[in-house]
């Protein structure tokens, strides 16, 4: 096996592995019982697509795909932070509405009669 | 959301995003990139800063109101279009200047196309930030 053959073989093997991992992540994205599971699955898929861009840059020998990988890695961080913020705010809001509900349901305190 | 991890990571990421946005802006003429994508990357850097430190801090870091940035970008883009008028060419014809060019060397090529791209960069940066910061402050 020449070095070039080995390189091509491992490149295609890694493509298959990355795509299988993306498919598994997608299953978790659909099934994920909680929102946090889905966010982590989405983050995993972002990282896998970064890996895919790197592999494709090797295969096609076009440097621009490396820039795509850099931008995607940077924006992926932003997306994860934004999702974390969204979940946090959702919990705070749920607590607020629960508090408001409990205040509404409570019978008004009777005024002490003189 | 003022977690220490996010704030420490943001310090690195914002610098990286802003540097990469300038890189994308300057290489845009011959390779993938340009003012629009550069502006988007730069805006996402400031959005990240606003998420970690609050939108008031992000406005202080920007120093100029985002809408003012967008307007000045529009002015710069218009200037790039009008500049061809002085040579008697049609509106928005690219004007080129080769700094330090000799018989054989091309020199450093500068053009009004780059000025237009800088204008687009500022318009995208300013308008995206104006929208995102307004949404941040509303909630």
TrEMBL record, chain A:
Localization terms from the record: Cell membrane
Organism of provenance: Thalassobacter stenotrophicus
UniProt entry keywords in alphabetical sequence: Cell membrane, Membrane, Transmembrane, Transmembrane helix, Transport
Keyword Membrane in annotation: yes
TM region positions: 6-27, 39-59, 65-87
InterPro entries assigned: MrpF/PhaF-like
Primary location recorded for the protein, binned into one broad class: membrane
Pfam families given in the database record: MrpF_PhaF (PF04066)
Its membrane topology: Multi-pass membrane protein
The gene coding this protein: mrpF
Family: Belongs to the CPA3 antiporters (TC 2.A.63) subunit F family.
GO cellular component, as recorded: plasma membrane
Record protein name field: Multiple resistance and pH homeostasis protein F
Record's keyword annotation contains Membrane: yes
Record-level Gene Ontology MF annotations: sodium:proton antiporter activity
From TrEMBL, chain B:
Localisation: Cell membrane
Pfam families: MnhB
Family, per entry: Belongs to the CPA3 antiporters (TC 2.A.63) subunit B family.
Lineage: Bacteria, Pseudomonadati, Pseudomonadota, Alphaproteobacteria, Rhodobacterales
Topology within the bilayer: Multi-pass membrane protein
Domain Na+/H+ antiporter MnhB subunit-related protein: 5-129
InterPro entries noted in UniProt: CPA3_antiporter_subunitB, MnhB
Lineage top rank: taxon: Bacteria
Database matches in NCBIfam families: PRK12509.1
Stretch forming the signal peptide: none
Membrane-traversing stretches: 12-29, 35-52, 73-93, 113-135
UniProt keyword terms in alphabetical order: Cell membrane, Membrane, Transmembrane, Transmembrane helix
Main location group: membrane
Protein name listed in UniProt: Multisubunit sodium/proton antiporter, MrpB subunit
């Amino acid at each position: 096996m020449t070095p070039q053959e080995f390189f091509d073989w491992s490149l295609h093997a890694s493509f298959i592995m990355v795509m299988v991992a993306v498919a598994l992540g997608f299953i978790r994205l659909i099934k994920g019982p909680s929102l946090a599971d889905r966010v982590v699955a989405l983050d995993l898929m972002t990282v896998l697509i970064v890996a895919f861009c790197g592999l494709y840059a090797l295969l096609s020998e076009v440097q621009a795909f490396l820039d795509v990988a850099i931008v995607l890695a940077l924006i992926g961080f932003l997306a994860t932070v934004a999702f974390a913020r969204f979940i946090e705010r959702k919990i705070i809001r749920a607590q607020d509405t629960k508090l408001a509900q409990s205040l509404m349901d409570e019978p008004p305190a009777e005024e002490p009669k003189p | 959301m003022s977690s220490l991890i996010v704030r420490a990571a943001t310090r690195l990421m914002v610098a990286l995003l802003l540097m990469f946005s300038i890189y994308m802006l300057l290489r845009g003429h011959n390779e993938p990139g340009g003012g629009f994508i550069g502006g988007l990357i730069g805006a996402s850097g400031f959005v990240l800063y606003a998420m970690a430190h609050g939108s008031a801090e992000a406005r202080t870091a920007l120093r100029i109101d985002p809408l003012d940035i967008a307007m000045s970008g529009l002015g710069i883009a218009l200037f790039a279009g009008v500049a061809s008028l002085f040579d008697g060419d049609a509106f928005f014809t690219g004007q080129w200047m080769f700094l330090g060019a000799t018989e054989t060397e091309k020199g450093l090529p500068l053009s009004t196309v780059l000025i237009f791209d800088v204008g687009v960069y500022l318009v995208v940066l300013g308008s995206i930030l104006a929208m995102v910061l307004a949404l941040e402050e509303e909630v």
